[in-house]
Structure formats: C-alpha cells, structure tokens
Write a structure and sequence with these properties.
single chain, two-stranded antiparallel ribbon, 2 domains, alpha+beta, about 35% helix, elongated
Amino acid sequence: MTSQTRKASVPYNPFVGCPKDYKKRGAYTHKVSGKRIPALCILKKASQASPASRSRSRAQAQAPQKTCPAGYVLRKGYVRKFRQSVRRKGYSVHRKNGRTYRIFPKKANEVEVKAACVKVAEPAVAELKRGQLRKHGYQYRLSDEFRRAALKKAGQEHTPTGAYKILNTATKLARKEKPTAAKIFAADRDWLRAEYAITGSLLKD
C-alpha cells in the first residue's frame, strides 16, 4: 500500500492494533445524534493540525512579545471553545464603560482570545489563612457584640493591628463572592481602627 492509496482511516482491530503510520482514535458517542462511533485507526498525517491552526501558530510565533506594566503579567492567547448550551443561551460580556452585552456565538464554535496583560493578585490576599479569626469565635453572621468580643480575643494573639489587616484582606476577598459578608468585615475593620486608634503609620510593615 503506497502513500497515494492510503486511506485517512481504517477499522481498528483490537487483536492486531493499527497498521504502520496509523494511530488509534478511541470510540465515542456523538453529542448531537447520540450515535456510537466505533474506534478507528487514523493516518498520522491526517491527524495533524489544520492549515488554519498552523497559520495561527505561525502568526503567534512571529508576533512581537508584548510587555506589561508593573503589577501586571502576560496571559497567553488561547482558543475558547463553546458548548452547545453556550451557543444557544449566549454569555455576558462586561465592558469598562459599565455596559453589559449578551453574545450569541452561533457562527462559530470557537473564538481566538488574544494575549493580554492581567493584574497580579495583591500579596495580602495570598497571605490570608483560613480560620485566623474563626478560632477565636468570630463569624460574620453573629451579632455586633459577639463579633467584637471575638475580635478582642484575636487582638491578643495577632495584636489589634494584625486583626485589622486580616479583616481588611477578608473584605477584599469577599467583595465579589459575598458582598454582605464584605460589608460586615469592613465595618468591623473600621471599628478596630477607631477602638484601638490604629493609624496609618501602624499599618506599614
């Protein structure tokens, strides 16, 4: 069998495997039709990247390396693939001007996301350890009286300034996921600052 007459795929034989220059493609169920597709042996050349993928890779390699300002790191470009449900229901995009758009990617099942500079997480967020205040009885769902009694105990271990920093970090972490908790953390943080006269000079490392 010459290279001109080779087929792109041949049936897979579990007893003898695939012929030379072929590799196995496992069986799968088609998402749309639900039909079970049997395993095949596909020609290695046929399984290489498409011309569009190769040209995209060449363009990325030839593109000048993007430099990011201080406090930002480069996030590499990637191809985002859409599930059928996303293509049907769409997804939201939030712009810097405050507007929100609904996108319906019906024309293509994937889109190329270009490389961009993204902000580095603040070091204080990475330093927060779970349970630093909870072990002293602090929970944001408790009343003001119980929360602040727990903060006084935490202040004995971490100092009032340390407890202030922990609450300040917790406020930043909870701002998006738990805005109600973030408001309570911020209120308790400000209470600590007023109660123990914590000034800006004390907050410096």
